[in-house]
Structure formats: C-alpha cells, structure tokens
C-alpha cells in the first residue's frame, strides 16, 4: 500500500506539472501570435477578441528587453523574474513564496532573428492543493483498506484456528484424564487431519511411556521385594532361636548380599533419575574400568548347571581409549553384562573396546552356549530371563536397567545371536 500510494502521488505530481506547463505554453503561443514587428524593429501588440484573458500573467518584451506590455496587477518581484527569464531565451522558472508561480519564456522569431519574448505565468497553488488532497486521500484510503483487510483476516484466522484450539484443549484433557482416547480418522480438512494424526501420535507415545513406567515400577518392586524378603527371613530366624557362629556368619553374608543387590539396583535408577533424560557427559579411561571388572570376577565359577570350571577374564583395550561417561556409570553399565557372561561362559570371557567412528564400542563375549535370535532380541526386556530354571534368583531386571541407563547417556546396547558363545555390544559416546 505504501508503494502504491507513493507511486500514484508521484505520477499525479508529474501529470499536474505537465498540465501547468501545457497551459503556460498555450497562452504564450496565443500571445505571440498578436505580436507585430515594424520595419524599424518596433514591436506592437494587436488587440484581439478576449484580449484580457491573454493579458492575465503575460509580459511581452522587445529584443532589447524593454517591456512592451505587462499584465494588470503584477508585482515588481514577479516582473523582475519575468525580465530575467526573457533575457535567457526559451525556458521556465519558478518564483517561490506563499503563492508560488511558474513562468514560461517563449521567443518570437522573425526572419531567423529574435524580435520579442513572451513570458507567461500561472499560480501553482491550485495544483499543489490537488496534490495535497491526493496525498490525504491516498493515505486515508490506504488506512481504511489496511484496517478492513486486518479485520477480515483476523476474523478468518480466528475462525480457522478455532478447531485447532479445540483439538489442543481436548488433547490436553485426554493426556490428563484418559490417554487412551484418540481423534481417529474422521473426515477433516487436510491440515486438521495432519494435526489430529500428530496429536494421536503424541498421545500414543505418552500412553506407551506411562505403560512402560507402570510395568517398570511393578518389576522394580518385585526385584526389591526379593532381597527384602530374604533380609526379613534372616532377621526372623536370628530372632527366633540362638544361632551358631557358622550360621550367624552365613546369615550375615546373606543379608549383605541382599543389601548389596538392592543398593546396586537403586544406584542405577538414581543415576538415571538425576540425569533427567541424558546423563551429563563425563570422561573416563575405559581400560582401568574393564580391568577392575576382570579382576573382580576372574576365577569365578561359571555355569549355573553346577559345573565348577573357573572362568578366565581376558581384557584387550587401548590404554588411551576414553569414553564420554563417568567411570562409576561405565562400571555400573558393564557389571550386569559381565556377570551374565561369567554365569554362562564355559572357561573364558573376553572384554574388548575400540574407537569406532568417533564412538567407543565395548564388546563382551564368552564361550558359552550363546543366544538364539529370540533370546538376543529380548535379552534387555524387563522381566525376561533366558532360562527361568537356571538357578539364578534374579527377576530379569538387571539388563533392563542397563539398557535404561545406556539410553540415558546417549548410547546403545544390543545382544547378537550366536551358537558359538554370547556376544553383547555396547556403544558409548566418546569423550
């Protein structure tokens, strides 16, 4: 609108200026046709009909610059401007002031020589008044049009967004009261159908998160109830009757193992909870952590079937390999994986690590029976156990906690199916 109004006013000013120049030239040519030159060079003006209309604002000068005829009511300043303009030949000029005037000089030529000059003038006030009215009118029209467009667009946008607001409010109510409700595939405009699909996906994810957390809480309570029940049972036995030194030592060891298991589970959960969604990046050398795990478990009896063969821990990792997590977090992530490998290994567990594409890859392998594709796919699911009759008293939550913590630190973990030993790969961010 600004450019349109500006262009219209510039065009109008140019047209009015051309109109004023055309009026001056027409009057000057009419006045020049009344000029007569005698043989001795004397300039006279013939009287014609409507001569008074031509005389308004018109001067006639001879070749020497003397005034032959002047208009009635002219001012000295205006006559001086006309005289100066006449000396310069054909041309235009303006005299400013409260009432600006434009002048036009037109030479009268006879026999190739200039014998007189006609100077006409006209007030520019009417033209300027038209320009001012045009500016005011264009501004008013632009403001009115913009206001109307604004009101129309506001009404249309408000009406168009009303279903969006209603759907957003409805999704908010469902997320608080009933996360199973969905907008579905009812006929809607394309944009609203896309929004409905997006909101349904958000509700699906929210419902999945709530189901996951509910299931996780149930499994966690089961995992914690087991050591708590063991501790309570040992305390009840200690209170029920006197115990021998050997029995006391065994009871204390059982209570200590149960408490340590609870502490490990809670520490893992607290590490994840403190991080929110992603554990703040730390820094730790991988080699010392893997060696500490190997030292703690080297020589442990392996298979749950009663086989008493010892397990040899083999560590192969560069000394300068650095992971982008704290050492205690790395230790907590790897401990359940290594314990699982030790439990099923025949004679050896191998821990290796390397830099892979800017990430740290830690691989835990054993020479046990390996995992079928189904077991490998579900190894990190909460509550899943590869063999429920293996004598292990866990609830299948250790590896699930591992995956939860690994995802929180920005990594990934997966078990590879194999019939020639277990294979678990852990990929962590580099420092």
Summarize the structure.
The chain has 431 residues and is α+β, with helices and mostly antiparallel strands. The chain has helices at residues 2-32, 51-55, 76-87, 125-177, 190-240, 245-275, 286-297, 327-344, 373-378, 398-408, and strands at residues 35-37, 43-45, 58-62, 67-69, 91-95, 101-110, 113-123, 284-285, 312-316, 322-323, 348-356, 359-366, 412-415, 423-429.
Give a description of the structure.
It is built from 10 helices and 14 strands. With 431 residues, the protein is an alpha+beta fold. The strands form 4 sheets. The chain has a 5-stranded antiparallel beta sheet with strand order 4-3-7-6-5. Helix 4 (125-177) packs parallel to helix 5. The longest helix has 53 residues, at 125-177. The protein is rod-shaped.
Q: What is Rg?
A: 51 Å
- Through-space gap between termini: 58 Å
Q: How much helicity do the residues have?
A: 40-55%
Listing every helix as H and every strand as E from the N terminus to the C terminus, the arrangement reads HEEHEEHEEEHHHEHEEHEEHHEE
Characterize the overall form.
Answer: rod-shaped
Strand order of the largest sheet: 4-3-7-6-5
Biggest sheet details:
5 strands, antiparallel
Q: What percentage of amino acids are in beta strands?
A: 15-25%
Low-confidence spans:
276-280
